[in-house]
Each structure stands twice: as structure tokens, then as C-alpha cells.
Amino acid sequence: MKVGILGSGDVAKALAGGFLKHGHDVMLGTRTPAKLADWTKKNPKARVGSLADAARFAELAVLAVKGTAAAEALRAAGAANLAGKPVIDTTNPIADALPANGVLKFFTNLDESLMERLQREFGDVRLVKAFNSTGHACMVNPKFKGGEPTMFICGNDEAAKRIVTGILDQFGWETADMGKAEAARAIEPLCMLWCIPGFLRNDWVHAFKLLMDVRP
Ligand SMILES: NC(=O)c1ccc[n+]([C@@H]2O[C@H](COP(=O)([O-])OP(=O)(O)OC[C@H]3O[C@@H](n4cnc5c(N)ncnc54)[C@H](OP(=O)(O)O)[C@@H]3O)[C@@H](O)[C@H]2O)c1
Prior knowledge:
By secondary structure, the chain is of the alpha/beta class. The chain is built from 9 helices and 8 strands. Strands 3-2-1-4-5-6 form a 6-stranded parallel β-sheet, sandwiched between helices. It has a two-stranded parallel sheet with strand order 7-8. Strand 1, helix 1 and strand 2 form a beta-alpha-beta unit. The protein binds NADP nicotinamide-adenine-dinucleotide phosphate. The site of NADP nicotinamide-adenine-dinucleotide phosphate has 24 residues, from helix 1 and helix 4.
């Protein structure tokens, strides 16, 4: 697929590497293309452009910007350039305030997620929450002792979720579909839980696994 990634940070670069590894075409979109000069030297097949360029390029887009800037980045990408397209939403609504004893602060609340806010403003974009509940170093074909990790996803569009599930299969994840956009109220805070061992013990390499009871 042609994948347009909105972002230039650790997540954008990690996922871009994964898409390239699995044979997709990639364009990263940023306000400052020069900041990716070193990265593109190492990844010559990737293209770099503006947020709008990446959105136009995309058959599948990825939103990988700071949570506080997510709406602004989508506006700059252009709602019309993303209309009808599946967009993987990796963002978390992390506030600028410092964590308390390793627990991140959010600018949303438990009755309204960032993804719902974005879906409301960008009604024609087919958002799918994914990749927000693990670290960038674990996103592409991670190897864990406990086997294949689980990625929790949600979104209002079933076809978009099937496309994202296909990508997660390629990237070595089992997918747990939690339903519509409201489920992001539960999936986004998984990032708080995921980060606690990092802040407390500098352990940033782990993932969640959903275990199913197989008794008849
Ligand atoms: N880091 C992780 O391991 C991890 C794991 C899971 C989920 N996440 C989530 O994934 C997202 C990306 O994380 P990250 O660590 O890669 O990057 P980040 O440091 O959170 O954000 C950097 C990106 O945000 C963009 N940005 C900042 N202000 C902007 C604005 N006003 N308008 C448009 N773009 C703006 C930057 O764009 P420019 O290139 O234009 O400067 C850059 O691409 C975040 O929401 C984070 O919570 C992170």
C-alpha cells in the first residue's frame, strides 16, 4: 500500500521502517522535512514531504504526532486529502504536566477520548486506534517470551479495521478489536499503564497480552 505517515518522531520513524520492511511505499509528512535528512539517508526508499503531501500520497495514513497537536496536524494535512481513507491513530492525550509517581497526566477524561474528539471533527476520516499501547521499539515484529503480543484497536469503520488488522498481522501482533470509537476511552489509558515500569524502573520493552480461557 501507499502509506502516508503524519509525523517525524520515534513512532513515525519506527512504523515507517516497518512498512518499508514489509514492502509498502512510504511518505513521511512533517512541518520541517530537513529534520529527517539523516533518517532518509538510511532509508532511501522513503519519501518526505509536508503533512498535506503525505495525506495526498496515502491510501493508508498514520497519525503519529504529539497528542496536543493531533487536531492541528490533521487540519494541516487537510480533511479533504484524508476523506474516506483509513487512518491509524497512534496518538495519546498526554498533557504537558509531569507524571505523578510514574503515572502520566492526560488532557482528556474517562468519558471522552482524544480519538473521539478527532473523529467528531474529521467525520469523513476512517480513524482506527492502534499502536498507542506499546513503545516505538516494540512496534514492528517484536519478540517476547510470552509469544505474540496483543494490540487493542477500535474505530467506527469495519473495513478500515480489517485493513489495520492486516498490517498488525504483518507486524507480528494479534489484534483485539474493542469496538467503536468510544473504546478509545479504555485503550488510550493503557499507555499510562505501559509507561509506569519505564518511569519507575527504566523498563520500556514490554507489551500487553489478552489471555482467553479455553475451557468448554
Ligand atoms: N514514543 C513512543 O514510544 C510512543 C508509543 C506509543 C504511542 N505514542 C504516541 O504517538 C505519538 C507520536 O509520538 P512520538 O514520540 O513519535 O512523537 P512526539 O515527540 O510525541 O511528537 C513529535 C511529532 O509531533 C509533531 N508536532 C508537534 N507539534 C505539532 C504541531 N503544532 N502541528 C503539527 N505537528 C506537530 C511533530 O511534527 P514536526 O515534524 O512537524 O515537528 C513531530 O512529528 C504521540 O501522540 C505519542 O503519545 C508514542
